[in-house]
Amino acid sequence: EAYTAAWLLEAFGTDDPVEGVDGVAIPGMNLDVDHPLGLPDPNTIKNLGWVRIKFNVSLDPRKHGNDRYGNTDVNYTYSRYAPIIKQYTDAGLKVVLILNHQTFGEGAGYIWPQMTSGQWRDLTAKFADMARRIAAKFANSGQIFAYQIWNEQDTKPENARAAVPIPAADYGHLLAETIKAIRGVDGKTRIITGGHVGGPVAGPAYARQT
User: Does the reported pTM lie above 0.70?
Assistant: First the structure.
C-alpha cells in the first residue's frame, strides 16, 4: 500500500484513452515475475502502453538460500521469461526488458559498495556478453520493444538499496559495450539507458558525464 497527496496525481483507469508518443501510450507498469502479485492478467492492463520487466538471470528459484543467486544459465532463464513476455505482447503491450546487476553480477563475487573502476571493467565484459546472449534469444521475435541498460545508476551510494550505483565514466563504458554487444545480434530493437534519480541538476550532470 502507498499513499500520496491527491493533488499530485491524476486518476487513470485502464479503460481510459491515453495520448502516446510514437504509438506507445505513456502509462505503464513494472512487473515482477517472482512476486505473487507481480503478473496481473494481461487483459486487465492491455490498454496501458508498456510493461517493464527485469531479466533476472542471477536468481535460480529451483535452489535455496545463497545458492539461489549467481546463476548464469541464460537458456533456463529464457524458458522462465519467454512465455510470460509473450502473453503481454500478445495483449498489445510493449515490453521493456531491464538488464541490470540481477542479469549478471549478483552472486558473482562482486561487492557493490567496494567496486573499483577496474572491477567495473571486468564486470562489463561479462555483462555485455550476457546481454548479447539474451538479445540473441529474442532477436527477430518482435517481443522486446526496448532493452534498458541498468537502472537508477546515478543513485548516491549512501542511498543505495535495490539499485546498484555506478560512477558515470564506468557506466558510460558499460553502456557502450553493451550496446555494441546487443547490436552484434540485433540491429533493430531500441536500447535505452537506465532512469536517473539524481533530480534536475545531478541527473543531467551524470548523463553528460556518461
Answer: yes
